Amino acid sequence: MAKSPEEQRPKKAFGWAAKDSSGVLSPFKFSSRATGEKDVAFKVLYCGMRHSDIHMVKNEWSNSLYPFVPGFKVGDRVGVGCMVYSFRSCHNCKVDLENFCPKMVLTYSVKHYDGTTTYGGYSDYVVLR
Ligand SMILES: [Zn+2]
């Protein structure tokens, strides 16, 4: 019998999940999807999600002080917004509007293209493109 995408995942994770519309978050164990060639996986130490980084990179608030380094390498601290994947080849992605990508995958509560579910950032482990 074939394993489900969740059963095939190599990395177990823990998070605080909304399991209904009550607004209450409770403990939740899950598995993150496997990393692909263009993916990164990292341990989450703190969670606070913002759109600010994208606005700052594009100087959309006219107060960016260049240079600054929004990218990262192994060992750097990183941040994740409300999306974990975009196609990278469509028109919207090519003009840095990945949030309008028709193939964009949100950080939580959707199915990823490999069939796994994205569970969100209030967890200890995240995989993204
Ligand atoms: Zn795209």
How does this structure look, described?
The chain is mainly β and 129 residues long. It has a single domain, classed as Quinone Oxidoreductase, Chain A, domain 1 (Alpha-Beta Complex). It is 11% helix and 28% strand. The protein has 3 helices and 8 strands; from the N terminus they run αβββαβαββββ. A two-stranded antiparallel sheet has the order 1-2. A two-stranded antiparallel ribbon has the order 3-8. A two-stranded antiparallel ribbon has the order 4-5. The two termini are 30 Å apart. It binds zinc ion (ZN). Zinc ion (ZN) binds next to helix 3.
Number of DSSP helices? 3
Biggest sheet details? 2 strands, antiparallel
What is the strand arrangement across the widest sheet?
1-2
- Per DSSP E runs of 2 or more residues, the count of β-strands stands at 8
CATH topology: Quinone Oxidoreductase, Chain A, domain 1
* Shape category: globular
Helix content: 10-25%
CATH architecture descriptor text: Alpha-Beta Complex
Q: Helices and strands: which structural class?
A: mainly beta
Uncertain segments: none
- Class in CATH? Alpha Beta
Along the chain, the helix and strand elements come as HEEEHEHEEEE
Bound molecules: zinc ion
